[in-house]
Amino acid sequence: MKITFLGTGTSTGIPTIGLKRESCLSSDKRDNRLRSSILIEYKSKSILIDCGPDFRQQMLRINKNKIDTIFFTHEHADHTAGLDDVRPISFQTGKIPIFAHKRVVENLKNRFDYLFDKKGDYPGSPHVYPNVISEGEIFKFDNISVVPISYMHHKLQVFGFRIENFAYVTDLKEIEELELDKLRGLDTLVLNALRHKEHYSHINLTQAIEMVEKLKPKRTYLTHIAPDMGLHSDTERLLPECVFLSYDGLELLINN
User: Fold this and answer.
1) Are 180 and 193 in contact (CB under 8 A)?
2) Which of 2, 71, 127, 186 suits a disulfide with 217, CB 3.0-4.6 Å?
């Protein structure tokens, strides 16, 4: 399994328009963060988790043009606003299956109705077809089993995803023990850690490290980083062994 971090930033990205934080002015390329998303390449399939407003730029940057499916964590714009940019891919491959909570599917149908409605057909028109994820139920894409992890992002339910011994969890604030147990025995965990200070809808760095200490994955990569986290080089010195700050373009190989 190969994991590519397409983006590792929070909803505003880094640098952020009009913000003069140290991270926004940094010349370290690791401090330049597009909106959070990853690409999983596994069993000859390319799985995109979230399709934010930077999707086109992200795919061009890594020189990839293949997406077999998209898993959506939730409906916020920084995780969904790039859906129209799958058009060049669907021109080549046809309809692209997406997987999401029923609530998220309905949200996307309202915002991108022409992607779902055959009445909007035209030569080369893009289309996606929805698959509803149910809480507590493992689902399959092709021959790949996926465990959805349900948790809260302030008052909004969000899904994380586990495939084999890899899991991706972003926009987490609160999680019940039953769902947390689904994240045990991991080789690699990707987990959000917004900043140093407390936040109402995301865990901060301290809370992320506490969760890692509880779950004990072999290694953890932190994502969905805000400008207030500070410089990458400074933050990584604060991290315990086997916990790392991710950055755009980072690639991981995971043995399954």
Assistant:
1) no
2) 186
